[in-house]
Structures are given as structure tokens and as C-alpha cells.
């Protein structure tokens, strides 16, 4: 803070950037009660900080029992997807100033999955659907002695869906998934799309057959919740539509 | 803590939670969790065909229904002209018979398929789904058969 330029605005720097923000967190602890309840925390925070910083302040300084997942804290690992002010977002990519700190900021676990404690949910159904679409390169014949080459255009075809970080923000924003846990969910379809349209992969047919399931792509109701929720800006609904189109053009 | 503490006949000691570390509350499973009993997969092209049918029949129905409404309610004197004689005159022509038959079948199947997806999405218990779908399919088949019968056996000289 001791940079020379700051002296001119010395009066300004005296003003603390900190404001008081209320965090309204959905707490659930099966060792205390079978019901979740809201708990308010008042903390001092710089509005340029993120929701994750607020949760850290609560956990480190106020209530150490607050439980949530986070790993890299920079929007890459996809651990800290949660429902902030009613929308699925990554806590580490949501700035306090962007979500109206005047009002209490509600923080809930993502919907449609079993809450284990506070903001931690059981991700197993999500990863089960992910595993079901075989998210790995499948090829036949001899392995090449060097890289599998691909043109820039072929790479571009599925570029959007390679960005997925498996945070489950899309799947847990999908109303069909809330009502029916059997549905594969947007994230699994996005990761199937990533291989279906990869020119090096040879199992597109198998993956399409898996997604042709009763609970596959045809359960998508095109509500665009997933596209709105994706913290990576993947056009999820478009990817699902492309899989649908591939299935139709394959059949007829 | 727990709202149903007061409901139990012999309540636990006041201030003591029902649940503790060794005895945690049961977790609420997500709706229709995948279990051993849920079918492995239900593949086949039925859902694909149903999805495609919804799109195609929707496009055709826009033409059929808007045309139908215009003829019945707007053009040539509006709704006041409709009577037994008007319907009899229209159904004398095979063109209008085909029009109405097509509209009946497409609208009924389109609506029934839409309701089927709604039931699939929202009805949670298997027995509820079974009953709702049974009712839906019965009503659909009945309406389609009755309508088709009327269109083909319509007698303008009926007494």
C-alpha cells in the first residue's frame, strides 16, 4: 500500500474496503438433526473477494464446523459448485460485489443429490452417469508409434465440450434430474459429446447407443438451465442437441 | 432441532437430540436413486421416434389447427354458421374428412405423448405412473377410435 501514487488519494485509502455481508448458509448435520436449516453469519469482507473467501472466513474464524468442498479455489477443479442466491455457481468464481451484498447471500448445496453435511453432497450418481458414457479414447488396430494427429478443424469440432470440469453445476440445475435421478444429466452428455465428435475416437456408435436410452438425451426438455449454470461457459444445451441430431441422422 | 420430537408418544429427554455421532439421521436419498432393481438400460429407438414425432406432428398441426380455426370461427360468417348442416356439408368431401382425421390422430398422439413425458418426469411412485399412464392410454385410444368411427360412418341423413 506504500506506493507513491497512493499518497495523492490518501484520504480515500483511509476508508476501509470492507463491508458487512450476511451469509445465509443451509446447514445440515445428521449427527444433530434430520432437518436442514438456515444459519446467518455476519462477516466483514471486501466486496471484491469471492463467496469462497467468505466461506473460508466463516470456517476459519467463526464456525469451524461449516463443511464444504473446495480444492484449487481457482475455478479449475470443480469442487465448490453450490447454489448461491438460488443459482448454481462456483463459489471461487463468484465475486461478492456481483451478487448484491446488500441482501443476505444464500448458500445451499446443489440440488438433486443426497446432502451428506452442510454443502457437501454425494456425487456418486453424477459420476456413475459419467462413467456410463465411457469418457475415454477408444480405438482399434495397432497403436501408432507417435501422437494421433488431428487437424485443427477436427479439434475445433468438440473444443467446447473439452472445457468441462465435472463440477455438476449443470446436472444439478436440470429439473429433469431433480425429479428423476435416472436421467444421465447434461454433464455426462457433454463428456460423451467430447468423444463422439472426436475424429480419433472409434466408439461414437457405442456412446450414441448408450445415450439413445430411455433416460438418455431424449429426456432433455431444452430448458437451458445447464447452459446458464455452466461456470465454464460451455453451450451445454447445444451439445445435447448435437447428440440428438447425430442420433437422428444416424437412424434415418 | 427436530420438529417431530413432540409427536412421539414417549419423547426423549428435553434438550437431548434424537441423533448423535453414533446414531446419525437417515440421509434423504435423491428421487428414484439407481438401485439394483432399476433396469440396466432401456435402449431402443422408441424415445427417438417419439421425440421426432413430436417435432414433425407439431409442424403439421400448426397448419391443420390454424386452418381449422380460421374456417370454423373466422371466415365466412364466423362461428354462427356452424351447425349440423355445415359439418355434414364439409364431411361430404373426402378432403375435409382426411383433414379432420389427420388432425384428430396427430393432435391426440401429440398430446398423449406430451402427457406421457410429463408423467415420466413428475410421477415418482411406480404405481402412480402405472395408473396415470393407464388412464392416459385408455382415454387416448377411446377418443381416437370414436373420432375415427364418426368420421368414416357419418350419415348426413341421420334422424
Automatic annotation (TrEMBL), chain A:
Residues 154-176 form the 4Fe-4S ferredoxin-type domain. Binds 1 [4Fe-4S] cluster. Its cofactor is [4Fe-4S] cluster; [2Fe-2S] cluster; [3Fe-4S] cluster. Keywords: 2Fe-2S, 3Fe-4S, 4Fe-4S, Iron, Iron-sulfur, Metal-binding, Oxidoreductase, Tricarboxylic acid cycle. Its EC number is 1.3.5.1. It comes from Streptomyces roseolilacinus. Belongs to the succinate dehydrogenase/fumarate reductase iron-sulfur protein family. PANTHER family: SUCCINATE DEHYDROGENASE [UBIQUINONE] IRON-SULFUR SUBUNIT, MITOCHONDRIAL, SUCCINATE DEHYDROGENASE IRON-SULFUR PROTEIN. Residues 19-113 form the 2Fe-2S ferredoxin-type domain. The keyword Iron-sulfur applies. One of its GO terms (molecular function) is metal ion binding. Gene3D superfamilies: 3.10.20.30, Alpha-helical ferredoxin (1.10.1060.10). Pathway: Carbohydrate metabolism; tricarboxylic acid cycle. It catalyses: a menaquinone + succinate = a menaquinol + fumarate. SUPFAM superfamilies: 2Fe-2S ferredoxin-like, alpha-helical ferredoxin. It comes from the Bacteria. This is Fumarate reductase iron-sulfur subunit. GO terms for biological process: respiratory electron transport chain; tricarboxylic acid cycle.
UniProtKB/TrEMBL annotation, chain B:
It comes from the Bacteria. It is found in: Membrane. It holds the Pfam family Sdh_cyt. Gene3D superfamilies: Fumarate reductase/succinate dehydrogenase, transmembrane subunit. One of its GO terms (cellular component) is membrane. GO terms for molecular function: metal ion binding. Keywords: Heme, Iron, Membrane, Metal-binding, Transmembrane, Transmembrane helix. InterPro entries: SQR/QFR_C/D, SuccDH_FuR_B_TM-su. The chain crosses the membrane at residues 48-75, 95-115, 135-154. This is Succinate dehydrogenase. It comes from Streptomyces roseolilacinus.
Amino acid at each position: 500500500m506504500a506506493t507513491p501514487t497512493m499518497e495523492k488519494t490518501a484520504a480515500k485509502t483511509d476508508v476501509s474496503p470492507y463491508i458487512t455481508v450476511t451469509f445465509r448458509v443451509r446447514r445440515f448435520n445428521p449427527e444433530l438433526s434430520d432437518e436442514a436449516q438456515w444459519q446467518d453469519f455476519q462477516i466483514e469482507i471486501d466486496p471484491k473477494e469471492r463467496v469462497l473467501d467468505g466461506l473460508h472466513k466463516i470456517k476459519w474464524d467463526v464456525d469451524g464446523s461449516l463443511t464444504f468442498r473446495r480444492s484449487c479455489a481457482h475455478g479449475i477443479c470443480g469442487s465448490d459448485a453450490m447454489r448461491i442466491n438460488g443459482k448454481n455457481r462456483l463459489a471461487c468464481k463468484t465475486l461478492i460485489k456481483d451478487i448484491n451484498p446488500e441482501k443476505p447471500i444464500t448458500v445451499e448445496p446443489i440440488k438433486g443429490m443426497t446432502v451428506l453435511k452442510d454443502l457437501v453432497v454425494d456425487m456418486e450418481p453424477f459420476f456413475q452417469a459419467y462413467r456410463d458414457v465411457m469418457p475415454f479414447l477408444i480405438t482399434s488396430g495397432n497403436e501408432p508409434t507417435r501422437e494421433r494427429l488431428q487437424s485443427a478443424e477436427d479439434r475445433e469440432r468438440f473444443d467446447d465440450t473439452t472445457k468441462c470440469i465435472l463440477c455438476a453445476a449443470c446436472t444439478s440445475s436440470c429439473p429433469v434430474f431433480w425429479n428423476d435421478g435416472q436421467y444421465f444429466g447434461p454433464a455426462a452428455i457433454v463428456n460423451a459429446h467430447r468423444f463422439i465428435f472426436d475424429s480419433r475416437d472409434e466408439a461414437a456408435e457405442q456412446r450414441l447407443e448408450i445415450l439413445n436410452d430411455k433416460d438418455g438425451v431424449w429426456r432433455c426438455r431444452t430448458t437451458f438451465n445447464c447452459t446458464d449454470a455452466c461456470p465454464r461457459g460451455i453451450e451445454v444445451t447445444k451439445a445435447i442437441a448435437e447428440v440428438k441430431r447425430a442420433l437422428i441422422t444416424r437412424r434415418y | 432441532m427436530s420438529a417431530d420430537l413432540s409427536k412421539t408418544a414417549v419423547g426423549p429427554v428435553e434438550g437431548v437430540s434424537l441423533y448423535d455421532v453414533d446414531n446419525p439421521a437417515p440421509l434423504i436419498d435423491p428421487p428414484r436413486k439407481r438401485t439394483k432393481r432399476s433396469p440396466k438400460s432401456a435402449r431402443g429407438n422408441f424415445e427417438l421416434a417419439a421425440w421426432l414425432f413430436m417435432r414433425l406432428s407439431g409442424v403439421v398441426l400448426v397448419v391443420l389447427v390454424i386452418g381449422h380455426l380460421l374456417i370454423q370461427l373466422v371466415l365466412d360468417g364466423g362461428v354462427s354458421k356452424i351447425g349440423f348442416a355445415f359439418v355434414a356439408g364439409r364431411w361430404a368431401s373426402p378432403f375435409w374428412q382426411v383433414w379432420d382425421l389427420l388432425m384428430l390422430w396427430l393432435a391426440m398422439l401429440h398430446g398423449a405423448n406430451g402427457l406421457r413425458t410429463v408423467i415420466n418426469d413428475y410421477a415418482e411412485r411406480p404405481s402412480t405412473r402405472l395408473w396415470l399412464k393407464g388412464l392416459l392410454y385408455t382415454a387416448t385410444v377411446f377418443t381416437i377410435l370414436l373420432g375415427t368411427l364418426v368420421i368414416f360412418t357419418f350419415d348426413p341423413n341421420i334422424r
